[in-house]
Every structure is written in C-alpha cells, then in structure tokens.
Design brief:
binds flavin-adenine dinucleotide; FAD/NAD(P)-binding domain; five-stranded parallel beta sheet; 2 domains; alpha/beta
Amino acid sequence: MSEKVKIAIVGASFAGLRAYISLKKRFPKAIFYLFDKEDYFTFIPSLHLSLCRPSHLQKSQFSLKRYFGEAFIHEEVISIKDHLIETKKKTYAFDYAVISTGAKVNYFGNDDLKKHALGAKSVPHLKVLHKRLPAAKKIVIIGGGLSGVEYAAMLGATSDKEVTLINGADRLLPAILPKAGAYANRYLEKKGVKVIHDAKAVSATEKKVVLDSGEEIPADMIMMCTGLKQFCPLLDSSPITDTLHLEDDDHIFLCGDVAKSDKVPTAHAAMIEGDIVAEHICAKLHQREPKPRLMKRQTTLAVGLGPQAGFIVFRSWYLPLPFTGFLKLHIEKSILLSFKRRIKLFI
Ligand SMILES: Cc1cc2nc3c(=O)[nH]c(=O)nc-3n(C[C@H](O)[C@H](O)[C@H](O)COP(=O)(O)OP(=O)(O)OC[C@H]3O[C@@H](n4cnc5c(N)ncnc54)[C@H](O)[C@@H]3O)c2cc1C
C-alpha cells in the first residue's frame, strides 16, 4: 500500500469529518483534500434553535480552517469524474473519494414551491429565513418529519407567529414511533400550531399555499421541510452498494444524507456511515475484502420541542423529558468538542 495515496472528502460535516478523522489516524502520510463550500462546520440539528435565537448560531459552529487547516480547502466542488475533482479554481487528482455533501431540499419537481418555499437545512438557508422572519406573521411549514416538527415547535413556543404545519402523512414523525408522533402533535397544538394531516402542498404564491384539497393557507413565509431529496448532483445516478461505493466505481464512496437509504437521515447515522466508509477504504488499501455494510438501525433519538421540552425515543419506547433541550445542547457541545479534538465519541 502506498502511503501517498490521495483521498478526497467532499463535504466537511458529520459524515465527512468522521471519515476524515478515521482515515487520517490510519494513514497519517496520505494526501488528504477536505473540501467544503462553507468555511465553518455547523451543528445542523440546532438550526431551528438558531432561527429563533440567532446568537446560538455562533456557538454551534467552528472554523474548519482553524481545526482542519492541514487538509481543508474552502471551495465548492463542481464535478467528480475520471479520478479528478474539479472546483471553480483547480482540478485535484484522487485515488479515493468520499462524497458527503448532504441532502438537497425536495421540491418534488414543483416549480411554484421551489420559487416560494424556503429551504431550512443549511446556514445559507438560515440567513434567508432570518431576513424574512421578523416581518412574517403567518408561517407555513411543509413537512411533518423531524426538522418540520422541531421548527414548528420552536416557533410555536418562542414567538407570536401563526404557524401551520402541513403534513403529507396521517401522523407526525412517520419514520419514528407512532406514540411519539402523537405526543409531538399534542405539544404543537398546545402551543397554538395548526397541524393539517394527509395534505399535500400543490402550489404556492408569495402569500399562500394551496393544498390538494383546494384549501388555501395564507402565508407570509413558507418553509420547505419535506423529506430531503437524497441524490448527489455531482454524480450520475449510479446506485450504491452495501459497502457504500458506487456500483460502477469502487473508488467513490457516499455517506451521510447524500447516500440514499431507508434509514431516518440523522447526524448520528451520518457519523456512523463516515466510519463505515473509512473502514472500507482502509480494507481496500490493505487489500482485504471489505465486510458487508454494517449499518444498524438507529435506536435512540432526542427530539426537541421548543427550547427545553422534547422526548427521547429508545427502541419502542419514548420518554417525554422537560430538559431535552439541555440534553441536546450537551450533545451539541460534545460533538463539536470531539471534532475539534479529533476524538471519536462512542455512538
Ligand atoms: C432543523 C433540523 C433538525 C435536525 N435535528 C436532528 C436531530 O435532532 N438529530 C439528528 O441526529 N439529526 C437531526 N437533523 C438531521 C441532521 O442534521 C443531518 O442528518 C446531518 O446534518 C447530515 O450530515 P451530513 O454530513 O450527511 O450532511 P450535512 O450536514 O448536510 O453536510 C453536508 C456538507 O457538504 C457541504 N457541501 C455540499 N455540497 C458541496 C459541494 N459541492 N462542494 C463542497 N462542499 C459541499 C455542505 O456545505 C455541508 O457542510 C436535523 C436537521 C435539521 C435541518
């Protein structure tokens, strides 16, 4: 195995940083390129908190240049092919690439929604939301999954906005326990959030969202929190294998939200996948047969409702905890510290 192997990681967030930390430890002399279009790591699961408390954003970030400066390249990758990664400034040759660029907002091909509904999953999205929020009295959130529920709960608990949550399924958080979804529903209604189930947004203007039933919901600000579209715009849509590489190129791996799978897309799962990809690259470099994908179903999840409340899901149990907000802040701090110190938390 050549120690001067070139490994490129595109996307320095939960999945990409875990893959980098694992690989750097095993191959300290390899040449690494760690790309991100943003120069800060941001704890994305706290974006809903930062929307209502903008001062929190800084606490949930750190400079990638400061902590990963030996490999970090602050550039947006625009193409990956033939063992070459291209940014607007330069082209980089690689032996292995890890793509961990996260998911894109899913507008279901609806141009109206794309024009009028704002994304809510990245810092650039948050900046737009911050500008629009003060003047918005009526907020419509589309999507009753994890991020839609956390945003609705935060806005319901900490603002006097009129919030409507449009949910395509017949219950909230359909990928989690039904009892937990019902609990979140009760919490939202108590906070004055109107929840509409079994409804699909079919069109939108600057001032309203139209549902498939024909009902029109007035809106000053529309947020798109639907299931995130899991695809990588940098690659043709080749499927990925159990060992998380492209079916037609075993030098390109995908992990985190960008890797299509049936699991709930979470930061926790993204970090585990970062480790799995590092394992497989390691096996290849040592000319070992990689083991099949070792992704276990996530059994524990903390869901925040407002700044403090929320609940913990553990296997088939859920436990309402008035201090979930503190727990999530503690998790955030631990993960930020673990990345800065390059310690792998036990997850
Ligand atoms: C409001 C909200 C609440 C959430 N709550 C929770 C929760 O409670 N618990 C939980 O576990 N998960 C939660 N999640 C989900 C979690 O945030 C994601 O699953 C996680 O961020 C995925 O990590 P990732 O590394 O795959 O991708 P991301 O965190 O999306 O990072 C992708 C990175 O790639 C970079 N990038 C993208 N394209 C390019 C390019 N072309 N060139 C260079 N860089 C690029 C981006 O700048 C970014 O840094 C929540 C998400 C949201 C939005």
